[in-house]
Amino acid sequence: MLAIIGGSGLTQLANLNVIRREVVRTPYGEPSGALTFGQLCEHPVVFLARHGYGHTIPPHRVNYQANLWALKEAAVEIIISVASVGGIRADMCPGTLVVPDQIIDYTWGRKNTFHEGTDEPVVHIDFTEPYDAAVRRRILAAAAAAGEKVFDGAVYAATQGPRLETAAEINRLERDGADVVGMTGMPEAALARELGIPYAAINVVANYAAGRADSSQRICFDSIETALHEAMGRARKVLDHLCSV
Ligand code: HPA
């Protein structure tokens, strides 16, 4: 079974044929919402809205541990994260779809492991390649089949939020090698790896990162909404194709 974790702009999947919703409790607390089980193009899918179905949970308050644990309990075999990002690189303009291949983690204070290290041997997962290569390939093949242009590979910077970055912070992220910036990619990807669930992401560029649009422009929330809405439609199409093969 495939799990889709939907971020801002994707609190539900229009084409999901919903079969049941399940409220799950985990040793780590409650996930962001009920798991929605259904079929997408006849393929079994479980959907979870990362920020809650009413979009009320900010990135630093998402219970990533509970979300991942709940999906593991639901026996999902792969996870695709859909998350909105700001574009740092000039060609990552609003509306672009990106399948990142690397992460730099700038978040802090989040519960970022299932191995708290109290009564067990120390565990260091390998995270050289933070996204699963086979899942990435499936997304890229689905995008090609759907006729949707996606960027193959990008460095995702995970920031703490919930505020957007300063222009100087974006300059620093760029010097570090980041191409896009978002607030939810970590610890989600690392927790999936700890649980052994292959995980990859579709990033949807909602806006130019701070200071990257026309230099006199601040980030405009209305235009973020519009770009996100349109591009999420294309991300959904990619997911439909991924499920129909
Ligand atoms: N910064 C961080 N996270 C984001 C942004 C951004 O500009 N846009 C969407 N998610």
Q: Can you give a write-up of this model?
A:
The protein has helices at 64-73, 133-146, 167-176, 185-195, 221-244; strands at residues 2-6, 17-22, 35-40, 43-49, 78-87, 97-99, 102-105, 150-152, 155-158, 180-182, 199-208. The chain has 245 residues and is of the alpha/beta class. The chain has one domain: Rossmann fold (3-Layer(aba) Sandwich), CATH 3.40.50. Strands 1, 2, 3, 4, 5, 6, 7, 8, 9, 10 and 11 form an eleven-stranded mixed sheet that branches. Helix 1 (64-73) packs parallel to helix 4 (185-195). It is globular and about 45 Å long. Hypoxanthine (HPA) binds at residues 84-86, 159, 164-165, 181-183, 206-207, 209.
Features:
245 residues, alpha/beta, Rossmann fold, eleven-stranded mixed beta sheet, globular
Task: Give a quick summary of the entry.
The protein has 245 residues and is an alpha/beta fold.
CATH topology: Rossmann fold
**Largest sheet features:** 11 strands, mixed
Number of helical elements = 5
CATH architecture: 3-Layer(aba) Sandwich
Give a list of the ligands: hypoxanthine
Q: Quick one: overall form?
A: globular
Tell how many strands the DSSP assignment holds.
11
The CATH homologous superfamily is called Nucleoside phosphorylase domain
**What is the radius of gyration?**
17 Å
Supply the CATH class. Alpha Beta
Strand content: 15-25%
Topology:
Blueprint: E1 2-6, E2 17-22, E3 35-40, E4 43-49, H1 64-73, E5 78-87, E6 97-99, E7 102-105, H2 133-146, E8 150-152, E9 155-158, H3 167-176, E10 180-182, H4 185-195, E11 199-208, H5 221-244
Parallel strand pairs: 1-4, 1-5, 5-11, 6-8, 7-9, 9-10
Antiparallel strand pairs: 2-3, 3-4, 5-10, 6-11
Helix pairs in contact: 1-4, 2-5
Residues 84-86, 159, 164-165, 181-183, 206-207, 209 line the site of hypoxanthine (HPA).
